[in-house]
Each structure stands twice: as C-alpha cells, then as structure tokens.
Amino acid sequence: MTSTIEVPFGDLRRQHAALATAMHAAAARVIASGWYVLGPEVRAFEAAFAAACGVSDCVGVANGTEALQLALAALGVTAGDDVITVANASIYQTIATLALGARPVYVDVDPATLTMDPAALAAAFTPRTRAVIAVHLYGQMADMAAILDVAQRHGVPVVEDAAQAHVARWHGRPAGSYGACGCFSFYPTKNLGALGDGGAVVTDDAALAARLRRLRQYGWERKYETRDANGMNSRLDELQAAVLHAKLPYLTAWTERRRAIAARYTVALADTGLTVPTAHPAAYHVYHLYVVRHPRRDALMATLRQAGIGCEIHYPAPAYAQPAYRQLAPAHAPHTDDAARQVLSLPLFPELTDDEVAAVIAATRTACAALA
C-alpha cells in the first residue's frame, strides 16, 4: 500500500519560508546591534510572552529542561527532596529533578487524557515531597484545578511543564498561569519554536522571577557578585528571542489550524479501532501532537511508513523503564505502561495541506482495516 501523496511528520521549512522576510530582519537587527545575550531582544520577547501567558514575568533561559531545573531550584528543591511527576512524557522532568540531587516520584496518568491523575497524586505525598511537576502533555493541560487542590492541602508548589502547551488553556486560563510557575521549551518543533534551543519560566510571583533571573546567570545579584550557590549558565540568546518574537503574532492562527486538522482526524478516524485523543471539556487543546492509540501500534506504524506517511512514537518507554532510571520505578502505573505500548503520533503541523490531511486519513483507515 502506497499513498498517492507522501506526507512528512513535520517540515519546518514551510513555516520558515513563509516568514523569511520577518526572520531575516530579526537576525539582521541582532547582528547589527552587537549585543547577543540577555539584551533588548530578550527583554522584549519576555514581556510579550508573559502577556500571552497571562502573567507578570517571563524569564528566558537556554532550554526547556533547564527551565524545569531552575524552577525547582528557585522553589527551594534540594538534595534529598522528592518531586512528584509523571513518567510518560520522556525524561526531561527526571533530568531536572536529579540535577538537584532530588528524587523523582512517578504517579500514574488518567487513562483518557494521559495527564497526571489527581487521585494518584494525592496518594503519593510524603514528608519529603517538596514540589509537583504537572505535565501538559501533547498540547492539553492537566487538570490543574484538582492538582492544585491536592498540592495546596500539603503546602507544596506546583510547576507546570508547558513545553508542549503554548497558549493552551484550562477553564479559559493559559498554561503557565496556574502553578507557582510554568516552564516552556522553544525547541524548533514546538508550537512556538526557535532556530535552536530556548526556554522560559513564567510566573506571577515577582520574588520568584527575581530569583530565577539570578539563577540563570551564575547566581549573580549583580555582575560578578554571586548570591545564590545554585546558579548556572542558562541564558536565552538575542537571536532566538528575536526570532521567537517575530513568530509570536502567528501563534494563534497556527494553533487554530492545528485544532482544525485534529478535529478532522478525530471525526474521520473515530470508527477505525483507534483510540483518538480525548479533549477534556475544560481544555483548549493546542495539539502539539496528535496521538492515537492502537493495540498493534508497531504494525500500524510500519504500514503507515510504508505508505509514505510520517509517524513517530511519543514516547516509547516510561522514564522508569530507561536503563539509567530503572531503580526509580513506581509500584503501580498500569495506564502509563499501556500508553507506552500503544501511542502513535500522526502528522500534524499548521502547514499541512488539506490534501495531505486527506492522505493521512485514507492511509490510516486502510491500515487499521488491514489490522482488524
């Protein structure tokens, strides 16, 4: 079986070709300025992105993983503490936690949304728990109302991992505006992506923002005066900030295109035997990824690739199944384990044509019928 159209899983060249004039102007402006790290471009983007997230402060950093590490450090997480999170969103939360000498504690996910199960969270607190990382997976926010209710009863702050959830909302409030802070990645393939690595932490807490700004640059209170021993070098550069600022006005339209493609997939694939994504009624899902589930996932992926349809697995193994982290395995996470065996991401990016979307649907329907 071969599709009449080959469809890539992603193609950033399409987006960048459409924005070539604006991106070249941004790059030229930075080159001419002579200022390349933590300058006016970073400050301008930080202000604009904070406004988009509905918060007062944005602190640009080097990447999304270090955004999580800096957020935990700023909240006082240190060696010997526990950080509760989920294991089905790759290893980024684990890396950030272990970097501080703390221990990741994994809880299971809701089987419908694959985001943190508030009931599982409630059962995981111990006297060592110092923070919760709630992951807004695939573009849908976790149930922040329930998660915050549980965490606040224990006096523990919640960090939102919003790396896949730029401008996602829960009951109308943007990702990053619920917890103590929200952490974003601007890796090129994200819904808002740079031309390299980049990240940010957003918050409404001015004191927390001030500490984050110290921590991202050696713990400096002022140049060469280190006040915080947990400081590191994690700075968003001027070029990436300028590119992100140039792209930001398009994010709403790109998001609506993602949602339109996702809606078309969901209707067309509902009767195929696939489990299509569940969008919670309270959520404005931004579909960073369109992730289906199938009991014969590997065979489905092979068939689609043979047909010329790009597809990927996000993510093939829970964090605790990685060779480096097996000692961290939870006692019981069946929904996490089931998802790892079944998830498959179909092509979804704003520049997909209607013909390409139709080709993905046709190939997927044919493949599912063959596997029935």
Structure summary:
This protein is of the alpha/beta class and 372 residues long. The chain contains 13 helices and 14 strands. The chain folds into two domains: 14-107 and 114-249, Aspartate Aminotransferase, domain 2 (3-Layer(aba) Sandwich); 250-371, Aspartate Aminotransferase, domain 1.
Plain-language structure description:
The chain folds into two domains: 14-107 and 114-249, Aspartate Aminotransferase, domain 2 (3-Layer(aba) Sandwich), CATH 3.40.640; 250-371, Aspartate Aminotransferase, domain 1, CATH 3.90.1150.10. Helix content is 39%, strand content 14%. It has 13 helices and 14 strands. It has a seven-stranded mixed beta sheet, sandwiched between helices. Strand 6 (169-170) and strand 7 (173-174) form a beta hairpin. The protein is globular. The mean pLDDT is 96.
The share of residues in extended strands comes to 5-15%
By DSSP, the count of extended strands is: 14
CATH homologous superfamily label of the largest domain: Type I PLP-dependent aspartate aminotransferase-like (Major domain)
The arrangement of helices and strands along the chain is HHHEHEHEHEHEEEEEHEEHHEEHHEH
Low-confidence stretches: none
What composes the largest sheet? 7 strands, mixed
With helices defined by DSSP (H or I, 4 residues minimum), what is the helix count?
13
Helical amount among residues, as a percent range? Answer: 25-40%
Number of domains: 2
Assigned CATH architecture of the largest domain? 3-Layer(aba) Sandwich
Rg over C-alpha atoms, rounded to the nearest angstrom = 21 Å
Specify the structural class.
Answer: alpha/beta
